[in-house]
Amino acid sequence: MTIQSKFSGLGTDAAPGQESRQLSGGIDAILLGDAITGRPVDFSHGDVDAFTPTPGSFEVFSAGVEAGGRQAYTEYRGDLGIREELATRLAGFTGAPVDARDGLIITPGTQGALFLAVASTVSRGDKVAIVQPDYFANRKLVEFCEGEMMPVRMDYATAEGRSGLDLSQLEDAFRSGAKIFLFSNPNNPAGVVYSRAEIEAIAALASQYGATVIVDQLYSRLLYAGVDYTHLRAQKLDAENVVTIMGPSKTESLSGYRLGVAFGSREIIARMEKLQAIVSLRAGGYSQAVLRSWFDEPAGWMDQRIREHQAIRDDLLKVFRATSGIQVRTTEAGSYIFPALPRLAVAGGDFVRILRLQAGVIVTPGTEFSPFSESSVRLNFSQDHAAAVAACERLVTLVDRYRA
Amino acid sequence: MTIQSKFSGLGTDAAPGQESRQLSGGIDAILLGDAITGRPVDFSHGDVDAFTPTPGSFEVFSAGVEAGGRQAYTEYRGDLGIREELATRLAGFTGAPVDARDGLIITPGTQGALFLAVASTVSRGDKVAIVQPDYFANRKLVEFCEGEMMPVRMDYATAEGRSGLDLSQLEDAFRSGAKIFLFSNPNNPAGVVYSRAEIEAIAALASQYGATVIVDQLYSRLLYAGVDYTHLRAQKLDAENVVTIMGPSKTESLSGYRLGVAFGSREIIARMEKLQAIVSLRAGGYSQAVLRSWFDEPAGWMDQRIREHQAIRDDLLKVFRATSGIQVRTTEAGSYIFPALPRLAVAGGDFVRILRLQAGVIVTPGTEFSPFSESSVRLNFSQDHAAAVAACERLVTLVDRYRA
After folding, report:
1. CATH 3.90.1150.10 is held by the domain A3-52+300-401
2. Closest A-chain CA to B257
3. For chain B, which has fewer Cβ within 10 Å, the N-terminal or C-terminal residue?
4. DSSP letter at A369?
5. In what residue span(s) does the Aminotransferase class I/classII large domain sit (chains A, B) (predicted)?
């Protein structure tokens, strides 16, 4: 494989946040009607000006700078004192012990943790089970490591009280030799939570086939009313075969500090540290200090954040469900909503560009997450409430305008 | 290649900064005499409490946090406004144009830039010319990408006014198919600067054989009196075949913010951004703001920093040269010194551990940089002046104690 062919699949042209690099050539010819005015909303990521970082996070960062060299140059896996604080809190949150010394690594964002976890477990030709739809980088990470992707469908649209993962496809993948299963829970982009029965089944299958599971739980703190969350790492399977990934970039709006953690399997964490040593040395030393504020937010702060997101979710659901032909499942956790649009007279990718040009609305095309999601778009609704609702109203106006 | 074998070569046990994870089992049996008291010095990296971060760097970081979402979520390659400021300054410094939009990427540290540059140019089986000795991660990066290393010797110990790179070995490597040449200038660990004639010869050979050159110029601002520095990217070779890497982690003591840049070849930078999107998304958004202070330090600040380092260098040279059997070349740039010790009664790796246990002195073993450097140790002398001198006096006392 040449380096050119290796990178040809790693396109970022439609990736969230990269819209400013897109050219709009050719689209003018298919535009219908005039632009709709309104405050622009970038749904490709959360708006940390609308939902601001955890109170006290900057102060704890400043204390890190004040601490000087000790905080600037930590072990590659992160400062031990901070790992110890986190281990206790993460064990409490997930319901299973975390080994601060050998079973936890601090990374530059959860993206850093995902990269290190995949590159530390997948080598050329290894089969990896990947959910469709799921976080777009999962597929790219497997491709970069030259693994072989074994897709597992998730019928989130019709399932109720569960994700809709096709467990028989997952077992087929394990039976065909998949040694790794990588998935996000809550699912990105669909915003659904795996049921207890599904998580227990995943644990049982992974145990039976000796597979390693990497579970991205980035959004597992932002659960809406009535939703139960089951932590895979607290189920019956060998703790050395599970790596859990979390971080404070989303719910806590701390993305600007680039922080994530991976915890679980000591052997895999050890490899991840070896790799981090040549990839970026360590998560930013001063930024690591910000983790001291994580899982230690002011009383009531997280509850309020959840309530505010749930209120936006409910209003967006109303807008979408009032429009004929839009299908959308209720987001159970996190701040993604993934409506499937009706048949349009323009291609899915073109409609995404039209939305940006005519409505000032940036969304991420569904094809980033699954080849079967061309009719869907993902919105991160962690936004100013009124602006988000108005932007979705413009979106459905354009859906009507461009219907097939 | 299994994932286990892939990682077996990536050991970090002797890597700088990881000493706290080392066990001291077995060493007691070979200790001679008592410990020598004195203020411990960790020469594995610079002491940012002795040489503090650039004045104003924290304030410009704080302004980045204040800017909010715009600064937290930049393009993957970094904020365009900051890239534009940097492009102008880096063009002025290196003597060749820098394309802010397409030819520059901001990375998590220079380590991040090195990883992305190598992983964006080297695929399985590609031959890569690597200097011996050179920065230890260079070898590991090539191994991780499953490239084939073509070693090129540098006889820095005997050369004068040049690095001593064996240009005929470099040409042999190109003739044998090496398509990439990766090297640091000033050299890490030897602290020597390539002469104009050497850089021109490298440019001519790279042009002749169509090779890509990745040059790590991390220490190119910290030049001592009388030293000329030649920028490879300003020489006669195709600008698309050169990537230059720099960052403010060392001379400017900004390592805690994890910042680096790579600039040059548009095609390679484009690949690096695609890879960054799945490795860590972007350099920490708020940290990027700190680059506004880079190459914009207060008048006289850099000159003073250079003078202070030169004074430490001169005192360490005196200590080493007063000890029979220690050979050391004068550091021309940067803050590394790389003395070769006389024959000892203990192995090189054991002596490094003894130094830590009996003298409170942490150094990096020469074998991290080259298989031919077992008798050498690397010291980063960006330390408190008096403490560094005292620590080196303890080091030479132990050299005398453990002589063969």
Report:
1. yes
2. A284
3. C
4. T
5. 66-395
